[in-house]
Amino acid sequence: xxxxxxxxxxxxxxxxxxxxxxxxxxxxxxxxxxxxxxxxxxxxxxxxxxxxxxxxxxxxxxxxxxxxxxxxxxxxxxxxxxxxxxxxxxxxxxxxxxxxxxxxxxxxxxxxxxxxxxxxxxxxxxxxxxxxxxxxxxxxxxxxxxxxxxxxxxxxxxxxxxxxxxxxxxxxxxxxxxxxxxxxxxxxxxxxxxxxxxxxxxxxxxxxxxxxxxxxxxxxxxxxxxxxxxxxxxxxxxxxxxxxxxxxxxxxxxxxxxxxxxxxxxxxxxxxxxxxxxxxxxxxxxxxxxxxxxxxxxxxxxxxxxxxxxxxxxxx
Length: 316
What we know:
Low-confidence stretches: 282-316
Number of strands: 12
Protein name: PilZ domain-containing protein
CATH class of the largest domain: Alpha Beta
Mean pLDDT: 86
Number of domains: 2
CATH superfamily of the largest domain: Response regulator
Structural class: alpha/beta
Helix content: 25-40%
Order of helices and strands: EHEHEHEHEHEEEEEEEHHHH
Largest sheet: 6 strands, antiparallel, barrel
Distance between the termini: 29 Å
Shape: elongated
Number of helices: 9
């Protein structure tokens, strides 16, 4: 059954068969604004992947790969599979008429709506509103990567001429959590400003300016601190960390996609779609379907800020 409760950790967002402009501008925009977005190129693997994430959101571009009738049958079949009944489906199209829109909306459960990309719509803001309405981010404002098993992430800092190794527990584009020996807690008192912490992630090392947001003792006797990046850090540092996080997310997702079986169901066995009638009569000849997506610098990129009001919301 579909859960209307927004999950604490947010939802994974999948775009199936996206156009070049959707992939280049919309998905890039959403990732820069901390939405966990993935691309699925092959519809035959979509159901298997979604069954692993049964509370995710899925936007399907219906203009390619299958006919509208086949896409209709494909999406109707979600209601017959228990692990897919909670998926938040949505449709994206440049070519559909309002008649097609009415047929899908009146007969297929589409919590994420039917988006016709036209010159009249502000697509970037439109999608962000849909995602927020359906709890795409949950309580978190920023994506976090658990780095405890990542071999290419490490950290160290210097104090009074000594070099100390710190373990990076997780990272986000606004900060990270570290663990270390309890006897070093005096170096990480709350509100302490640290300007000499070196973070290595992937092939890049960065000297970061951080402020200690919180420090606590763990049950195993080690200590943990949450460090927030200050405004002294260049924007390129935050961008690199975000890109690194998505690189790791994509690696994990691509492994799953490569290993799931294809769906061999034939969705052209019935043509219920052609028998449906639109709810409203439209003059379809005047409908414009010109792509509205433009580069981010022309649309204006939404700024992501750390509020600092609630550590659970902002980083943990």
